[in-house]
Write a structure and sequence with these properties.
Layout lengths: L5 E5 L2 E5 L3 H14 L5 H8 L3 H13 L3 E3 L1 H13 L7 H8 L3 H23 L36
Antiparallel strand pairs: 1-2, 2-3
Helix pairs in contact: 1-3, 4-6
């Protein structure tokens, strides 16, 4: 299974494309966690949200090829990928119940973080026209502007 999903930044959100087994893994994990018998408090500790939010996120992730997610949504997916492994006594039980191995969940969680970081860094490297604040003093002073031995402003700190 490929570890990193395809991620592109779109403003303050991220367009994510989970491919092949990545989507299948999330299709297993999200409802499995959402429909456990434990209540909302336990679910919120595991996933960072309640059942209704997990159901909505599952519907969005499984609905199409590309999904736009907020950082909060991505955090929920990351939390789910890392927390579900602790609910099984063994690797065999995890695989039997979900059809994947724990390492698949770990790899996707790590790949998701890397892909989001790379998308954020790529969007920061694009040239952006940002107005610079005024320097406050105009051009540097020279002989025509007056004496160079003008008093300096008070220091920001004192040396002992």
């Amino acid at each position: 299974m490929r570890a990193k999903p395809i991620v592109r930044r779109e403003g303050t959100k991220y367009s994510v494309r989970f491919v092949g087994a990545q989507r299948a893994l999330l299709d297993e994990l999200l409802p499995w966690l959402a429909y456990r018998r434990e209540g909302e408090p336990a679910l919120t500790v595991w996933a960072g949200c309640g059942r209704e939010r997990l159901e909505q996120l599952h519907a969005r992730v499984s609905s199409g090829d590309q999904v736009v997610l907020s950082l909060e949504d991505l955090h929920i997916l990351h939390a789910v990928l890392l927390s579900v492994h602790s609910m099984f006594a063994s690797e065999e039980a995890f695989h039997t119940q979900l059809g994947f191995y724990r390492e698949n969940a770990y790899d996707l969680a790590g790949g998701l973080v890397k892909a989001v970081e790379e998308a954020a860094a790529a969007s920061c490297s694009e040239p952006v026209a940002v107005p610079l604040p005024p320097c406050g003093g105009g051009p540097p002073s020279g002989p025509a502007d007056g004496p160079r031995d003008a008093p300096h402003p008070a220091p920001l700190f004192k040396l002992r």
